[in-house]
Amino acid sequence: MGQHILVPVDGSPHSEKALEYVLEELPEPTITLLHVINPVSVLAYSDKDGRFDVDAYQQIERRKKQRAEKIFDEYREKAAVHGIEIETSIKTGKPAERILETAENGGFDHIVIGSRGRSTVGQVLFGSVARTVTNRAAIPVTVVR
Asked: What is the second-level CATH architecture of the domain 4-144?
């Protein structure tokens, strides 16, 4: 039996490459895909009077979860070609924090994460989820470009 691998995904080509790496390079992996919904400011859900619009918030959150499920379906198809079933998880919060929390509490052996390929300037200005995970994870992390 292979390792239990956590693969954070966002539907980008980089996260797709991370999954492909696991499928092609790691023997008999158990794979869990994690999609983190990064909430936006409450102000983004305010109506014209500045009140919180619960309906708008719930509608957007439903769309985000539907998008995550669509990503999971696409990635399940890719894994099925290799005869591998995939577990999935959706969490809400800051992506790096949720990835690290999931890795710590989920009994994972390894994290494989896609890189956004930002320049050094971009990493300094905006930070990088992959960089934060790599620096703080207690288990091995592979960053796929």
From this structure: 3-Layer(aba) Sandwich (3.40)
Contact 138, 103 (CB under 8 A): yes
Report the C-alpha gap between 62 and 32 in whole angstroms: 22
Residues whose CB falls within 8 Å of the CB of residue 43, separated by 6 or more in sequence, listed in order:
none
Domains of the chain: which residue ranges?
4-144
The predicted-structure confidence for 82-93, as pLDDT tens digits, reads as follows 999 999 999 999
pLDDT tens digits, one per residue of 64-79: 999 999 999 999 999 9
What gap in Å lies between CA 19 and CA 58, rounded to an integer? 30
The rounded distance, in Å, linking the Cα atoms of 44 and 136 is: 31
* 2, 65, 77, 117 from 85: Cα distances, Å: 13, 20, 9, 28
What is the DSSP secondary structure assignment for residue 39, as one 8-state letter?
Answer: P
Q: Mean pLDDT across the chain, nearest whole number? A: 88
Q: Positive or negative, the Cα torsion across 3, 12, 70, 57?
A: positive
The answer on pLDDT for 98 being more than 80 is yes
